[in-house]
Design goal:
By secondary structure, this protein is α+β, with helices and mostly antiparallel strands. The chain has two domains: 67 residues, 3-Layer(aba) Sandwich (Glutaredoxin); 98 residues, Glutathione S-transferase Yfyf (Class Pi), Chain A, domain 2. The protein is built from seven helices and four strands; from the N terminus they run βαβββαααααα. It has a four-stranded mixed sheet, covered by helices on one side. Helix 1 packs across helix 5. It binds glutathione.
């Protein structure tokens, strides 16, 4: 199976880490984003990553790929935690996208909305339930790792010492080291 990814994508990173840690060999192919010449467009008209190609079937959207690989938790509470982690990632990603627009196209109100959403999700976490090796634990750590490397405008550690300690312990694994996103300057 081929996994199309971009090194900065926190969504793709979830699958790259789980693939390594669960012994599922995913052939990772880095693809440019928003490029009409990107090779993945031949299989994936949506053009987003992550995208999983199995034979001639292309599956996009992280939760669907997790489901296809049998990695979605069956416990409703774990599913709920995963939903919050993915909602966090989604909100931070669109907030980050706004910051990449020309200044006159940015929306401070939109950014404020996403900042408060992200803070709310982090403050509502029940960390004792978050196993760092679970899908939802990996997803949460990938969202925080994205903030550290590509979205530093969000100082998520402030007032969250327990979360900072959880994160420091969670990422101390080869799969995290091997998939560290490049710094972006935002
Ligand atoms: N809802 C999607 C989000 C994936 C996503 O936003 N991917 C970004 C990279 S982090 C992307 O491919 N952006 C390129 C584009 O918007 O064209 C998922 O769950 O996988």
């Amino acid at each position: 199976m081929i996994l199309y990814f971009a090194p900065g994508s926190p969504f793709a990173r979830i699958l790259r880490i789980l693939g390594r840690e669960r012994g599922v060999p995913l052939t990772e192919i880095e693809t440019p984003l928003r490029d009409p010449a990107a090779p993945q467009l031949a299989h994936n008209p949506a053009g987003r990553v992550p995208a999983l190609l199995d034979g001639s079937t292309l599956i996009c959207e992280t939760p669907l790929i997790l489901a296809y690989l049998g990695w979605l938790p069956s416990d409703p509470a774990a599913l709920s935690r995963l939903g919050q982690a993915l909602a966090l990632t989604d909100g931070i990603a669109v907030w980050n996208r706004d910051l990449r627009r020309p200044v006159h196209e940015r929306s401070p109100a939109f950014q404020a909305l996403e900042r408060s959403r992200a803070g709310r999700i982090l403050d509502a976490l029940h960390l004792s339930a978050h196993d760092p090796f679970s899908v939802e634990g990996v997803a949460l750590a990938c969202a925080l790792g994205y903030c550290d490397r590509r979205h530093t405008v969000f100082p998520w550690r402030e007032g969250r010492d327990t979360l900072a300690a959880w994160y420091a312990a969670a990422i101390n694994r080869p799969a995290f080291a091997e998939t560290t996103p490049p710094l972006s300057g935002i």
